[in-house]
Structures are given as C-alpha cells and as structure tokens.
Amino acid sequence: MSTVTAAPVDRLLYTPEQAAEALSIGRSTLYELMADGVVKYIKLGRCRRIRRADLEAYVANLVPLPN
C-alpha cells in the first residue's frame, strides 16, 4: 500500500509564521521587518498577510556582503 502526499500549495498570501518559515528567519524578526516597513503586508480584519510578490521583492532587494 502506498501513501499519497499532497503537493505543496503555491500560496498567494502567507501568514507571518508561514512567511518567516519561507524566508528561514524567526517570526519575531519578520514582525520587526513588517513594523519597520521593510516587508509590506496587508490587513484582513485582524489578520496580517504577506503577498508572495512582497516576499519576492524583499529577497530581491537584499544586498549580499562582499567576501
């Protein structure tokens, strides 16, 4: 008997916890980035969500340090 696993969902909106996991950073670090306006987010009622495009833009704007 085989086990079927579902393919990962390609999300449009992420919770802060999901976004932090996707970026491999801590949840509190992500909340700091959101509070500083570095990572954009939207509010849906009392919930905060981060658009996939905003996560990609944040990563694209990171500057690598010289070696």
Write a brief structural summary.
With 67 residues, the protein is an alpha+beta fold.
Protein model, in words:
This protein is globular. The protein has a three-stranded antiparallel sheet. It has helices at residues 16-23, 27-35, 52-60; strands at 13-14, 42-44, 47-51. The model has no long low-confidence stretch (mean pLDDT 91). By secondary structure, it is α+β, with helices and mostly antiparallel strands. A hairpin with a 2-residue loop joins strand 2 and strand 3. Helices cover 39% and strands 15% of the residues. Helix 1 packs across helix 2 (27-35).
Average pLDDT, all residues: 91
Separation, N- and C-terminal Cα atoms: 51 Å
Unreliable segments (pLDDT under 50, ≥5 consecutive)? Answer: none
Shape estimate: globular
Total strands: 3
Percent helix, as a range, is: 25-40%
Percent range for β-strand residues: 5-15%
Assembly annotation? single chain
Enumerate the strands of the largest sheet in spatial order, edge to edge or round the barrel.
Answer: 1-3-2
The secondary structure category is alpha+beta
Q: Rg, please? A: 15 Å
- Please give the count of helices: 3
Strand/helix succession: EHHEEH
